[in-house]
Specification:
The protein is α+β, with helices and mostly antiparallel strands. Strand 6 and strand 7 form a beta hairpin.
């Protein structure tokens, strides 16, 4: 048996409508219409461009619940990472996250260029662009040993804003 990829993620949220609006309006996820006898207190969404049944499930646990203490007081998931195709898309995502007050960081990991955000419940996620396999050079590979400041303008000059990321890495060549 070999695992190929993550099919979907499911998150517990305090306010379903607020979370659906965030993932829809900020990250472009599309809510999947549910039948009248579907899951009450749950929503299923597709990522932009996805043909998957759903990429994200949200289950409401109510406003009386406390924030996650994963990584601070308990074990648990740190974050999920979603991939974008181009550095131009990463820039648009950075702008949308910043406008929503949800951008909490940006890092250059050498072979990946990453944004970090938090949803309305404070659950962290990463939006990432991967350097294509044919563009991996010694400098990018060496930079994996450190976390640097992300300079999207410099990365677009180096790789091109419309260069498709992940080719030969996470996407077949």
């Amino acid at each position: 048996m070999g695992i190929h990829r993550l099919n979907h993620a499911v998150l517990y949220v305090s306010d379903l409508a607020r979370s659906v609006a965030f993932y829809r309006d900020v990250l472009g996820f599309r809510p999947i219409p549910m039948t009248p006898d579907g899951f009450g207190g749950a929503a299923f969404l597709q990522a932009p461009g996805s043909t998957n049944d759903h990429d994200l499930g949200l289950f409401e646990v109510g406003a009386g619940t406390g924030p996650s203490t994963a990584g601070r007081g308990t074990v648990g998931l740190y974050h999920l990472a979603w991939e974008v195709d181009t550095l131009d898309e990463l820039e648009v995502t950075a702008q949308r996250l910043a406008a929503a007050g949800a951008l909490v960081g940006a890092s250059d990991h050498g072979t990946t260029k990453s944004l970090y955000g938090q949803d309305p419940d404070g659950l962290e996620f990463e939006i990432v662009w991967l350097v294509p396999a044919d563009r991996l050079d010694d400098a990018a590979l060496a930079a994996r040993k450190r976390i640097g400041r992300l300079d999207l303008d410099a990365e677009r000059r180096r790789y091109g804003g419309q260069t498709r990321g992940g080719v030969g890495v996470s996407v077949p060549a």
